[in-house]
Specification:
7-stranded parallel sheet; 39% helix; 696 residues; 18% strand; 6-stranded parallel sheet
Length: 696
């Protein structure tokens, strides 16, 4: 069953097969991403206009849309060009006016002769104490009431597309929907009280009240679930595909892991121990590991990742740890080298900076297997990098490595296990949407000895007090971050803000004291500025958000975030996690410009009250929506047309377990329900995933 099923052909035909759609309209519809009749099915009305008929406009709360039968009275033609043409009309109880602009000749005298009966529908407003309906949406003879819909759906529009056209084209597309077999688990459908797919579409396109145009109605909920199920089936197929690839069993005796754990000045948390044993079990199986290690700032992900790398070495192989930037790669190197040295393991770094002889030496030791663990950036993807026996790739994710790069890495070893680390606490629904093909380990405890960070809200009007406070902190030998806002998406503007602040602070606190780092700098200059701060030469680092990811300066105890109200909660939480890494008490100052909006106030207060990244992420998701929380464009989180990830998180979890269950019992989707699921995948334009269905 390799091609699209025949019953779906008409839904994927040209748009011009629909009523009222010609070549020009088809072009306009592209503005709504509509390429085929199928696409119109999933653009649902977002509201509804109640056009049920009334006897009179009397007693209405104006302005109001209403439908009423009237007797046409006297006409007042426009006195001058561009003025209004008015017609007096009466319903059963009162009089009002119909108003038209740009009236031509005697058109209205002929169309609405005095004494005739008409049904009009439109918005009635009061002008000069007279109720008026300007340009009614509908005017029909009294005997043709059925031409006015009782409830008119309101669709999203684009240039050149009207409500009438959308309505007509959508109705035409609905006629093409075949009787589809059911892909939803029967018990789930009964419990949820969902209609069939065809009925759900009919109901969703014909809401009978504003309540029926929201996501919680059974029809809409069912269509949202269809969308989520297709997405989770795709991820489950990708996961099954990965799992079918025979991995390498990497079993170790634990001697390296134990030796490192014993050298540590603290005990691993129970969350770390749990994650280590989950990873050990994955690596020992003959299936490829594809696991996400999710943990808040400071939850100890790096230690867990290092244990996985050691397990690969114990088993006689090699491991690689990849970071998105050179600064981070070097930081991993500094953190891990002493631990590796304790147990006599060689660990090296490879970045774009390595050239000539030094690079050749490293590549040689990788190829002959004497170099056991490599830390690096994208440079480890390059053609001339060959491992002797790569068992595991750990990717420090930060949303910068897509699925494509995860696969690319897979080609470096026979079939290395993959562990992706992310420090962004992602709400469960988003984690399922983005990483649904992976198994997940969560670090939800902070290692012992981490001091809480005091968070305070300070108005920018008191900035001089903050600068005074910094003076005292520096005199005390401590360091400070000062993060400038991303005012707009333009680096140039952000840069000006950061450079201005840099100048002010240097003037106030001394030239040698303050450093600057921003996104426009050359990598070498950025690294140099970071190194001066890390070594303590500069006491204050002014930065745009480039420092959000992973930098570790235990001596930095103050984080100032300017215009905190325009940052996302998750981002503020990440930035705050840059301090509190040493043994001194740390503070995060959120500088805001007053007056704060209600939601701005609420967001900043959440940060003041909790350090739990997962709680913060859930709040962020509720307040801002999925796209903003993790910058949908680059994050890999799919955009859903009907499903609402913020409000329908529960549906996503059900879809994931159902998709996995279906594929466990029917890996080739050959049962009745399996074949129905194939139809769903075709319908949802998941052609790629159909190719993943294993044959036999």
């Amino acid at each position: 069953m390799s091609g699209r099923p025949e019953e779906l052909f008409r839904l994927f035909a040209s748009l011009e097969t629909l009523d009222g759609v010609g070549p020009k309209t088809a072009k306009h519809l592209a503005g709504l991403n509509v390429e085929a009749p199928r696409d119109l099915l999933f653009i649902l009305p977002y509201s509804v206009i109640d056009r049920t008929r009334r006897d009179t406009i009397e007693g209405l709360d104006f302005p109001a849309v209403t439908t009423v039968q009237v007797t046409v009275g006297a006409h007042q033609p426009a006195r001058k060009k561009g003025a209004a043409y008015r017609i007096s009309v009466t319903d059963k109880k009162t009089a009002f006016q119909l108003v038209f602009f740009h009236a031509r000749g005697d058109y209205w005298a002929r169309a609405l002769p005095e004494g005739s009966e008409r049904i009009v529908s439109g918005k009635v407003e009061i002008f000069d104490n007279i109720p008026q309906m300007v340009h009614p949406d509908f005017i029909v003879p009294a005997g043709e009431a059925e031409k006015i819909p009782a409830f008119e759906p309101v669709y999203p529009l684009t240039a050149g597309v009207t409500q009438k056209l959308m309505s007509k084209a959508s109705q035409s597309a609905l006629k093409l929907v075949p009787d589809m077999p059911e892909w939803i688990d029967a018990a789930q459908k009964t419990v949820a009280g969902w209609p069939s797919f065809g009925d759900a579409l009919q109901q969703a396109h014909a809401p009978r009240s504003p309540v029926e145009a929201v996501s919680t109605t059974p029809a809409r909920e069912r269509l949202a679930y269809d969308e989520l199920l297709a997405h989770q089936l795709t991820l489950a197929l990708a996961r099954a595909q990965e799992r079918r690839k025979v991995g390498v069993c990497s079993t170790g005796d634990g001697h390296l892991q134990q030796a490192v754990l014993q050298h540590l000045p603290y005990r691993a948390t129970s969350a770390q121990q749990r994650a280590i044993s989950e990873i050990n079990a994955d690596m020992a199986s003959d299936r490829r590991m594809n696991r996400l290690l999710q943990g808040d700032v400071g939850s100890g992900k790096t230690l867990v990742a290092f244990m996985a790398l050691l397990r690969a070495v114990e088993a006689g192989g090699q491991g690689v740890l990849m970071a998105p930037t050179e600064i981070l790669a070097r930081q991993h190197l500094e953190g891990l080298q002493p631990l590796a040295a304790d147990v006599g393991i060689t660990l090296e770094i490879l970045t774009g900076r390595d050239k000539g002889k030094e690079r050749q030496t490293k590549l040689g030791s990788l190829a002959d297997g004497s170099l056991k663990i490599l830390v690096g950036t994208h440079a480890v993807f390059q053609k001339d990098v060959h491992f002797n026996d790569l068992r595991i790739a750990v990717i420090d994710e930060q949303h910068r490595f897509g699925v494509g790069q995860r696969l690319e890495l897979g080609r470096k070893g026979v079939a290395p296990d993959v562990l992706v680390m992310t420090a962004t606490p992602i709400p469960r629904s988003l984690a399922l949407a983005q990483y649904g093909d992976m198994d997940v380990s969560v670090l939800d405890e902070k290692p012992a000895g981490r001091k809480p960070i005091k968070t305070a809200l300070v108005s920018t009007e008191r900035i001089y007090e903050v600068v005074d406070r910094l003076r005292a902190v520096i005199a005390d030998g401590r360091q400070c971050y000062w993060v400038c806002p991303l005012v707009e998406e333009s680096e140039a503007v952000d840069l000006t803000a950061a450079e201005e602040r840099f100048k002010h602070l240097r003037a106030a606190l001394g030239e040698a004291t303050v450093g600057l780092v921003h996104g426009q700098m050359a990598a070498a200059d950025k690294d140099a500025a970071m190194e001066r701060f890390q070594s303590g030469q500069t006491k204050i680092l002014v930065a745009t958000t480039v420092i959000e990811v992973g930098v570790n300066v235990p001596n930095a105890t103050i984080m100032v975030i300017e215009r905190a109200e325009i940052f996302g909660l998750a981002q503020l939480h990440q930035l705050r996690g840059r301090v509190g890494r040493g043994d001194a008490a740390s503070t995060c100052l959120l500088l805001y410009r007053s007056p704060l909006s209600e939601s701005g106030q609420r967001r900043l207060e959440v940060l003041r009250e909790t350090e739990d990244g997962f709680a913060i992420a859930e709040t962020d998701l509720r307040m801002r929506g999925a796209g903003d929380v993790i910058g949908t464009a680059q994050s890999g989180v799919p955009r859903f047309q009907i499903a609402d990830l913020e409000r329908q998180a529960g549906l996503m979890a059900i879809a994931q377990s159902d998709a996995r269950k279906l594929l466990n019992t029917d890996p080739t989707l050959e049962t009745d329900r399996g074949r129905a699921a194939r139809s769903l995948l075709w319908l949802m334009r998941r052609d790629e995933s159909i190719r993943l269905i294993s044959v036999g």
